[in-house]
Structure formats: C-alpha cells, structure tokens
Amino acid sequence: MSKKPYIRLDKDNAAVLLVDHQTGLLSLVRDIDPDKFKNNVLALADMAEYFKLPTILTTSFENGPNGPLVPELKEKFPDAPYIARPGQINAWDNEDFVKAVKATGKKQLIVAGVVTEVCVAFPVLAALEEGFEVFVIADASGTFNAMTQQAAWSRMEQAGAQLMTWFGAACELHRDWRNDIEGLGTLFSNHIPDYRNLINSFNTLTAGK
Amino acid sequence: MSKKPYIRLDKDNAAVLLVDHQTGLLSLVRDIDPDKFKNNVLALADMAEYFKLPTILTTSFENGPNGPLVPELKEKFPDAPYIARPGQINAWDNEDFVKAVKATGKKQLIVAGVVTEVCVAFPVLAALEEGFEVFVIADASGTFNAMTQQAAWSRMEQAGAQLMTWFGAACELHRDWRNDIEGLGTLFSNHIPDYRNLINSFNTLTAGK
Amino acid sequence: MSKKPYIRLDKDNAAVLLVDHQTGLLSLVRDIDPDKFKNNVLALADMAEYFKLPTILTTSFENGPNGPLVPELKEKFPDAPYIARPGQINAWDNEDFVKAVKATGKKQLIVAGVVTEVCVAFPVLAALEEGFEVFVIADASGTFNAMTQQAAWSRMEQAGAQLMTWFGAACELHRDWRNDIEGLGTLFSNHIPDYRNLINSFNTLTAGK
Amino acid sequence: MSKKPYIRLDKDNAAVLLVDHQTGLLSLVRDIDPDKFKNNVLALADMAEYFKLPTILTTSFENGPNGPLVPELKEKFPDAPYIARPGQINAWDNEDFVKAVKATGKKQLIVAGVVTEVCVAFPVLAALEEGFEVFVIADASGTFNAMTQQAAWSRMEQAGAQLMTWFGAACELHRDWRNDIEGLGTLFSNHIPDYRNLINSFNTLTAGK
Amino acid sequence: MSKKPYIRLDKDNAAVLLVDHQTGLLSLVRDIDPDKFKNNVLALADMAEYFKLPTILTTSFENGPNGPLVPELKEKFPDAPYIARPGQINAWDNEDFVKAVKATGKKQLIVAGVVTEVCVAFPVLAALEEGFEVFVIADASGTFNAMTQQAAWSRMEQAGAQLMTWFGAACELHRDWRNDIEGLGTLFSNHIPDYRNLINSFNTLTAGK
Amino acid sequence: MSKKPYIRLDKDNAAVLLVDHQTGLLSLVRDIDPDKFKNNVLALADMAEYFKLPTILTTSFENGPNGPLVPELKEKFPDAPYIARPGQINAWDNEDFVKAVKATGKKQLIVAGVVTEVCVAFPVLAALEEGFEVFVIADASGTFNAMTQQAAWSRMEQAGAQLMTWFGAACELHRDWRNDIEGLGTLFSNHIPDYRNLINSFNTLTAGK
Amino acid sequence: MSKKPYIRLDKDNAAVLLVDHQTGLLSLVRDIDPDKFKNNVLALADMAEYFKLPTILTTSFENGPNGPLVPELKEKFPDAPYIARPGQINAWDNEDFVKAVKATGKKQLIVAGVVTEVCVAFPVLAALEEGFEVFVIADASGTFNAMTQQAAWSRMEQAGAQLMTWFGAACELHRDWRNDIEGLGTLFSNHIPDYRNLINSFNTLTAGK
Amino acid sequence: MSKKPYIRLDKDNAAVLLVDHQTGLLSLVRDIDPDKFKNNVLALADMAEYFKLPTILTTSFENGPNGPLVPELKEKFPDAPYIARPGQINAWDNEDFVKAVKATGKKQLIVAGVVTEVCVAFPVLAALEEGFEVFVIADASGTFNAMTQQAAWSRMEQAGAQLMTWFGAACELHRDWRNDIEGLGTLFSNHIPDYRNLINSFNTLTAGK
Hints:
The structure is a homooctamer of 209-residue chains. Chain A is α/β, with parallel strands linked by helices and 209 residues long. Helix content of chain A is 45%, strand content 14%.
C-alpha cells in the first residue's frame, strides 16, 4: 500500500513519454486488438496535444527491422524532443532522453510504449527510482501476450507505478467539464465510438429545440 | 499488506455512494454483461434499502449525452441526497457531495458507479486520502473492457480500497441469519436465480411437512 | 441447404413449447450465465403471452430431484396445457403432450427447455420427423457446457431445425412496429437493459417537446 | 453442400445493402469490440465507394430511440437510395427498399447491418428466396452476444448465404492487384493497422532506392 | 440436411467402440480439462455396461510411447473383444476390428476415442461409408486443441455422423425413467456432481417423510 | 510485501477448516467446473486425512435451502468437530468453531469453502486478525463467477493470506518424497489424471524389469 | 451431407499447395499463436517432404510490403514449382499455377496459406469447382481473427472442402505405422512436444532393456 | 511496494536455475500451449548460454514417472551442476543444490521450472528468505491451469519476487544493442517468429543496397 493513497495527475505538472511505437515492433503486439490499439495510441497523442503536455518521442534502432516511428506520431509532435536511441534498450539509459525529461520540469510522467515489459517497464522503474510519479497508460502499451502483460504490470505495480488508461488520464487531467466541454467532448467523440453515438443521438434529438 | 487485516463492514457505520449510473453512460459498460450488470446494480440498491444505509446519488451532466439517472434508482431513494454535478468529474471535487457524505456521520463508504476507473476510482481515492474506509462494489461498477477494469482495480487496491461484491457486502453487513431470515432470503431470492431455485425446491418439498 | 430458404415465423401459425424449466434442473445449466438465462426464459414467456401464442408446459419428474416448474411460468400460463410426464424423457413420447401440440392446429413450433441436448433436442427431432417447422430458442435453452451445446445445435441443424433467439423470434412474429409500437417496446424495455436505456434517454430528451 | 461450389463476387454484378447502422442500435452490439466494429463498417463503406457498387441505405424508426443513421454513412453516400422504413422490421417487407434493390439490376447482394439475426438475417433470407446470391459481411454486422451471432449465422448458412468479411469481399471484387495497386493499397492501409505498418516500413526502406 | 431428421439411438441396436484411450495418448488431449475428460470416459463406460451394449476395445501400438489402455476400461470390460492393432491407424483398416463390429449385429455405432480427428474420425467415416448409423460421443473424445476439434467435428458432420455427449446418449437409450429409476439415477449421480447434489438435497429433505 | 518472505506449511502445526461445502450452496459455484471442483474438494479431504491434520467441519443453515454437507466429507471425518452454525455467516463469529480451532493448538490454518468471498474470506480475515498464518486452498473454494473470485482473492491477499492449491499444499506438507513415496503417489494418482497416466505408463514399462 | 461420406487422402494421389506464407503477410495472422503457427507450417512442409508429395509454392507481390516467402519453405522445396504471381489475388486465376497443379496429375489437393479467407479460400473454391477433392490444412492457415476464420471455414465447408490439420492429414496419408515407424515418429517428435516427451520417457525407460 | 523500486538484472551478478523440466512432468503443464512452452524453455536456455550465466540443473525423481530431464537442456549445459534430487520436493532443501547456487557467487537468481507453484515457488521463497534477488521467468514455468498459476504468482509476488519473461530478462541483461547486435538478434530470430519475419523482410529489402 502506498503511503499517500491519492497521487493525482496534474496537467501543470505532467509530461508524456511515447516509447518505441514503431511500425515493425507493432507486429509483436498481440495482447490487444490492432484496431483498438491504434485508436488508443492516437487518442493518447490527441490527449497530450489537447492538454498541451510536453511530450517526448523516442525510438530504438529505427533504421533496422524495428522500423520507423508511426508517421502519425511524428506529424502530431513536429517540435517535440525526438531521441532516436543508438542502442540503449532502456530509454532511461540514454542521457539525451533523461535530459529531455528533466528539461520539462515536470514531476509526473505519463508513459506508454511497445513492448510493455521492456520499452515501458524499464524507464518506468528507472523513473520511479529517481522519485518521479509514474502513470502507465496500459491501453496504449502493448506486448506479446496476456501472460507477458500481466507479469509486466505486476513488476511495475510492485515498484509503485499507477496503471491507468488514456480515458482515465484525460478525465483526471481535465478535472471539470466546464473547463472546456466541447474540447473534451471532441476528444472522446473521436476515439470512443459508443460516446460518439451518444452525442450523435443527443444532437439529433435536440437539434430542433 | 494493510496493518489491520480485517476491516469489517458495519451496518451502523456505513453509507452507500451510487455514482453516475446514467442511461447514456451505461452504453459504455462492456466488462460485464448488461443483464447481469442491471441485476447487480438493483441488488445493491435493494441491499442499501434493506439495511437502511444512508445512500447518496450523484450524476454527471445528466442533461447531456450521459443521460438521466436510471429511473429505478431515483424511485427507490426519493429522499436521498441527489447531487447533479454541474461539471466536476470526480464527485469528491463537488462540495455538496462531500458535505452529504460527511453529514451521514459514517466512516465506511460502499461505492459503485460507471465508469469504474473514473467515476468510481476518483472519489474512492479521495475518500481514502481523507481517512475513510472504502469498499468498492466491483460487480455494480462497470467500464469499457477487462483491461481498463483491471488497471482500475489495481490502482484502488494499491491505495487501500477493499474490493467486494454486493452479495459479500450484504453478508458482512447482516452478520447472522437470525437477525432476519426472511428479509435476507428475499433479497437473495430476488437477485440470485440459483438461490431462488434452491428456495423454490426447498419450499415445494417441505410444503406438506 | 434447405430447399426453401426462408421459412418464416407466422404468429397465426405458431405454438410455444416450454420443456422442463424446473428449479432443480436449472442448476445443471452452465453454458449461459444464470442472470441472463432467467431473463431470456421470462422474455420468451412474455413474448408468447404478448403474441397470444398457444403455449404448452411440460415437466419431467417434478416430484423428484428435478424440482418443480419455475413458479413464474406456472403463474403466467395458468390455463395452458400442463403435462407432468410420468417418466418419458422425450416429451414427444408422451401421448398427452403430442395431443396438446396437435390440438393447437399450428404447424410451427417454437421450442426451448433444459437441458438442450435432451429435453429440447429430442422433441425437436421428433417434431421435424412429423413435418413440423421447428424453431429452437437457443438463448432460452441451457445445458452443461459449451461443448454439449455445440453438439446439440449441430444435431438439430442437421435435421432441419432453425436456431433463433427470443428477440429474433419476437421481431419475426411482429413483422411491423406499427402493429403495436408500445407493446413491443415494453417487451424489449423489460428484457433488454440497453434498449431500456435508449428508451429512457429518448423519453427524457423528448419529454418537454 | 451447394450445387455450384464457387459463387464468386463480381464487381459488375453486385450491390451493397447497409441496414440499420443507427446510433442507438449500435449500443446493442456486443459480439465485436466497438473500435473494431466502427472500423469494419467504415471499411465496408469505403469498399463500396471504391468499387462504385450501387449502395442502398435503410433505417428503422430513426426518429425514435433507435437513433439516426451514423453520419459517416450518410455523408459518404449522399445520392444513394435512402429508405427510412416507417415500421417494417424486415427491410424486404418494404416495397421501396425492394424496388431500389431491383433497380440496381444486380444479382449479387452484399449485406451488413445491426442487429445480425434480425436486420441482416431477415432480408438475407428473403433475398435468397427470390433467387439472389447473397454475401453477408459478418464483421460489419453486429448483435447482442456470441450465442446470438452463432444462431444467426447458422440460419443464414442453412439457407445458402455465404459468410464473408469486408477484406475478403474486397479481394474477391478486385481480382488482380494490377487493376489498381494504389487504390486497393490505400483502402487496406486506412483500415488494417498491421497492413499500414507493413507499407510504412516498406516505404521507409525503399525511399532512397 | 439429412433425409430422415430423427435417427434415434436404440439400445437393442447399438454397439460401443472405445478407440485408443491409452495412458500416453491422453497426454495429448488439451481441448477438454483432464478431470472432466476422465469423468466423461468413465461415464461412457458405465453407460455401456448399464445398457449391456456390446463394447469393443482397441489400441494402437500399446507397447510403445502411446502406452497401455487405461486400466479402468480393461477392468470394466474383461470379456469384450480387445483388438491391439499392430499398426493400422484407422481401426477400420484392421480386419479383426471390423469383424468384431459386424459380429455384434448392430447397425448403430457409438464411438469415442483419442485423438478425435484421427482415432475417432477415421473409423467413423469408414463406418458411415458402409451404411452404419454413427453417433460420436464428443465429450469422451479428445484432441490437441479447439481448432483441431472443430475441424474434426466439421468433417464428421458433413459425412453424416451425429454429435452427442454421454449424457444425451444415455437419455436417448433409456427412453423412460420408469424403465429403471434407480439405475439411471445412480449413473447420473456418479458422474454429474450437480445432479448428485440435487439427489442428496432431495433425499435429506424427504428422509423423514 | 510480507516481512518474512517464506511462511511455510508445517504438517505438525497445521489444521484444516472446511467451510460450508453443502449440496445446495454448491449449485452457486460457477468459477470452476463442477467435475474439477468435486475432485479438488475430495483431494483436499484426502490430503487432510493422509497427513492426519486436525480437521474441522462447519455448515450454515443445513436444514434449509443450503442443504446438507456433502456426504463424502461427513463420512471421511466421522470424528471431526462438526459445527452446524445456527445463523452466523462468518464461522469465526461462532464460539464453538473458534474454540475447536484453538483446541487444535495449531498456528497454521488451511481453509477452503463455498462461497469464496463470504464463507472463506470472512473467517480467513478474522483468523489473520488473531495472528494465525492462513493458507487458502483456492481450487477447493468456489463462488459465483470470475469477477467475484478475483475480488475475494484481492481482499484476502491484502490482509496477508497465502493463496495455494491442494497440490501445492500437499507438496509443501510432505517435504520429501522419501517420507512415503507410495502414500503421496496414491494421493496424486487418485486426483490428478495426468499423473495417474504417467504412473500407469511407467508401471507397465517397468513391470517386466 | 456429401454423397460419399469418406473421401480419404491417398498419398499416391495428393499434391500440396502452399499459398502466400510470406514474411509480411504473417504479421496479419492473429487467429493462432505465432509459435504454434510457425510450428504447424513447418510440420506441414516436413510432411509433404516425408510423403514425397508434389508441392507447389506461390506468392503474392513478394517484392512489396507482403514480403518474401519464409526462407524455410524455399529451402525445403528447392525444385518445386514456384509461382510468384504478378497480381492475381486468387492463385487459381494464374495460368502457371493451375498448369503446375494439373501437371502433378493428382486429384487431391492439400492446401494451406495466409490469409485463410482469401489466399486459401479462393483457390480452394475454384479447385472444387473443377472437381478436385480439396483438403484444407486449417492449422497451417491463418488470418486476422476468429470471426474471419469461422466465416472462411463456413464458406469452404459449404462448397465441399474437408477441414483437417497437418497431424490428421499425416495419419491419413500414412495409413499404417508399419510402413515406417521411425520416419513418422520423427515427424511427430519434431513437431509435437507432448509426443516427443512420450518418446523420450519411453526410450529412457526401455534403454536398458 | 518494495523499498527500492528498480532492482535490475545484471549479467555479472546473475545465475539461472532450471528446475524439473522433465519429460513426464511436462504432461501436467496446461496453463500454456505446448508449442509455446517448449519454445520459451529453449529460449531461456539459449539466453543463459548467450550471456554465459552460470546455470544449475536439477530434477526430481527422474527414474520414476516424472521422467528424465528434457534432452535439449542436458545437451546445452553439459558441464553445469546437475542435481538429481533423491526426494526433496523443494530444491532448496537439497544441500548440494544450495551449495551449487552459492558457489556461483551471484546474488541474483533467474528461476524457471515445472510446476510453478511447487518446483518454482518453493525454492524462490526460500532464496528470498536468504536475501537473494529473485526473478521468476513466468513463461518458461508451467502448471496445471490458470487458477493454479495465478495463486502461485500471487504468493511469489507477495514475498518480493519479480515476475518476468525470457524476452524481458534478455533485454535487461543486454542493456545496449551495441554490445552485440548480431548475437541478440539471432537469439530473438530463433525464438520470436514475428521478429524473425521482420528481420527477413528487412534483409530482403536491403540486400541490394
């Protein structure tokens, strides 16, 4: 049990780390359906952009079989620090990456990547060791199978990471719908088909009012 | 491991919080079958009524796509505090809600809602932070999918919440069948088909005795 | 492939056979969740009543461990032929049952029961043999496990039975919403939580119109 | 076993029927993940457009709880026949719908809709009865649960319908990549994340060649 | 669709073939839980004994890695024809086996074995070819995994075999409880825990009557 | 993380509590297959007998719908303390039960029962509170469904209980095969079909040696 | 039901078609685990080699994102006809492919490939149309997900294809162990871990005999 | 929560313990597919060899039904300490085994074996008790079923063990691809089919560059 029960995401104190979402590595992800996974990763990116969270991109060996970063992420964050690691498996072993993280001045790290037990878990554990508050976006992270996923989750939980999903993180960052109803509604409508349907039904019914 | 192994539900010291069981939001729930989920939510409501536990209702944006509170809950608790939140996502960020909770004078909170990782987890974590003993009714709370559910459970467990189901909570509150055999039996018969069958078989066989 | 592709349920030519939904036998049903199964059986009963289809009840050894017919079915069809079979496992081997079926004058039989591969499949196969058109309500029939269910479905399909669910049957019997919007809507609202939610959201939004 | 083993989709002889993909009804679909289902329906629509297949839209009670047609479909086929049925549950019972189908002059019908055992199965069976060759796009059709889906598939198979998915249909319609490599590649890249990754990896590696 | 819808098991016209339930081969069975499978095989054996059906045992290479026949089957049928095949994979390719089958004079064959797609399917197809009516006891037959099981079932169904389980077969052979209530009840009590519980509850409640 | 990593079962310091394995309550168990569950409960009983562990039986309302204790347990432990609780849901609330537990003089409790989150979890938590070392036999305990099981496991783990299965417990109690090869082998052969097969293959091959 | 129940594989009359097992396309396969799928494809290849069946290789667009044929297949069949199709999606639309098939002079075709509903189903249906007897090796064929797999199987079954697995096909081709015990044993030992374990246990125990 | 969040595998301070991967015991493993399990165990062995980690082999009763160590492990580590335990179930109860472990001079233990809750968990808990840092290779350890696996994982986690998979361990040991790209790539290519495909696609495309 953590000492402080509620460590809460704060949009003024959080940065996003997107680790190794590369076109080759994605073929290894089998603990989550590809349509769903693509949607979750893009939703997380849209969330980072919406809340203007400093975002850091990194890749592993992108000129080899692992393949390039998925183009959508590159295009969304053209000015973000982009660390193409020359060989370090744990991004936290790369000085430039850690410098970029620390340069954000944030104490909360929102992390997602491929594959969960390596590209996510290793920097997560290292960041916890250095005192960061770490939030893993479980549904924008993927790996080989359910057994691997569960072992990775267990290791990160034991070390004090908090497991969340992109939707939960967005809600915790936003705090109050009145801060911007349309903005948050659009984010949800674009990435949650059931919510989009609710909005479309509602808009149709109230259109003539 | 919690310091005190057995924190036990006490019917004289517990309140029930029903968070955002709204007709629109329910279409998002896919980690539990709709027939089963409806039954569990109504069973929890019947349990709250049966044990005369102070119960608090709250909704999020009920005039928008999220839809109104399910009518059965409104009807069962006509005099309960009902906080239609104007925008706060975490019910605990709403002063009226927290006041209502504290006005019950209870130290144990039984919480269920939709969706688990937001509408349930956020006030659960906040209540733990303030020293309440919190019991999550897992089977009357729902969310998008199993992965989200598991991440939400993990976060609440780490913070010290206890995961229960409505049946377990009812048993722990009742303590002894002799307090009211018929009342508890009726609650179970109405919401557990297998138990209802046992009772019907039994009654038929002993009818002539 | 059947010769005639579309053999269509006709409310003027259909009868319903409910076979052995008994309180003891129900404890054997494990291919479908009990909350869902109870709902489906009651929905089928409501459907039969709504369309005023002649309905026949039968039980096997109801004074022994199999237990009595579930009381809800008895109460809903107080005047229906009720054949408590003295020993025949296949209801079609019981003369009174077959007489009751033929007395309805209908050529289409809608059948559900417990357990699928015996209490449903045996009379279904016998009725097909005699030239009836048979529709099995799969989701109001239950058995030990998925393997048994699949084998039973396969045997009935090969013999020419059509597999349906209570909702599909209700839609095919009704043909056109304009025959009675409120009646069919109520049937669905009572037994499909998602549909009930849609109706409640709709009614709330259009209430002031 | 059908007499002619290979009844093959022919782009010059096929029409597409999209039945009741409405915002309310979609909340009933639980046999396929919402992200995946949305993608499949839009992929089927893109396929129809790409191959310039005559497409017919129909809805059931769109001013009630079933909700409006999903806007993306309306927008993609602004000139398609659009039959808002006043009450007929089986679209084939609606004269305008059948007229529109026959007006295409095609003998092959590609059908998808919500829910599978009603809105899809009923017109599929009726069309088979009239001698059409019918191809059900299984993954752009949805229903309550796996049991319902399997029963619906069984009924349609027995009547002679062929079960396909949007990808299989697209491949059978296209016949030869050389007819238009880029067009088909774009369709796949937009709706199959794994294929998109293959293309992105390939393009990156061959960019400098 | 078979021409005659209801080909019904007849205890005066049926023989049982138990094919290759050997201690080594059983380690290959993974489409059904070992506790359940053991119970089903023994239940089928008890059924054969109870109905005094002629039973034939056969093994494949029992002195090699496939291992000996499970001892319980040997002990239960000490006088049954026992064909230890010297090499034929399809038992029907062994003349002694076919002779033994034909010597029973029965036209209905009840078959189970390990593994389903080979040791069961091959003789099943051969027997159908020769005009026997064949009933596969699906839950007393096992194989590598679900995919293999489904392919094997499909092949046998297409050829006209009927898929059943030991319980369904026992019910169809018995026809009427009154032929011997205690005998059938004991068979069920020994192999269906849920039924045993029903009987024990019943006996306790009616003991004093 | 517990302070002492390895709290090890000791056959000289352990007692077994079997809570509410009653014929009626067993119909509620759906998180584990009935054949497997029956086998596990009897295996645990055989283990208790084999290691001569003091064993305590208790039931809840055995004259009502819950039904009598399963007869096999009664017969195996004719001289064990047997507490038919008059109404206490938590066995630990019954003085006679606690006295019987303490009279064993053991500090380690091996607990199993039906249903897991109530009949098992409540006395487990209470015993932990009093300083006992508690080992839950997960596979001889059953409940309504997987969600309930997981919530119950979580609550007991958080309080410091150790989750085991009957096989693991038997191995930890036995320590060394040489203490009695035949005895332990027989226990495993009787309750693990795969192990029985290994033994039978082995014995056949080495018979002539 | 097919007219002739048992169409049996004959090693003197069968050819093997391996369709589009390419390194890129394999990343689309998600209805079967990658370790298992790789093993099955190589097992099928070893089977073809062992029985000296004429084998034909074909690929689709191997210079594009689909990637090259997996190297193991190329190496195993260096002299096999190898048709790199310039664009035809259905291999049967390629004249060279059909010529190569007909040049074998065989009437039975054993087919596997990626993805099932296209690269396998299309030539399977075309070959059936021309009167070949077609055996689909289901476990060496892969596709996007279970729903797609089931629809593809259904379409091929309806057209008269037989679904098998590599192990079943090998057994049916071999007919009698005595034809070559060591050869078949080696094939199984190399691709069935459970069988390899049986053989290793057996060899160890009988080594000294 | 452990005190030190990141306890990291260090190739200069780690030893590998392979416990009871015996041909007989492997037939008990049913929580992971046999093809996958075989691959994982061999991958772990290759990893140990690649990183030159001291490796210790042990077996339980290898002359009895448990069977011999799988030959591949014997052959890969001909000079490794090999402790054939005469009877101790917990390898840590065997003095020679503990001596061998301590003789390595390593503080980190990487453990895998069959079955998880006994042969793995017992020495893991004992080693933690003595202050070792323990990493369980979850996917190279197997047991009876998922329930047993989960209980075993829970017990080891509570005691402070870290759950990993062979791939995660290899990545953490290697630290930086530049230490040896080809060596690590070969390890992955041999045991991860998806990765092998990426490499083959890559090599083909860049071959002519």
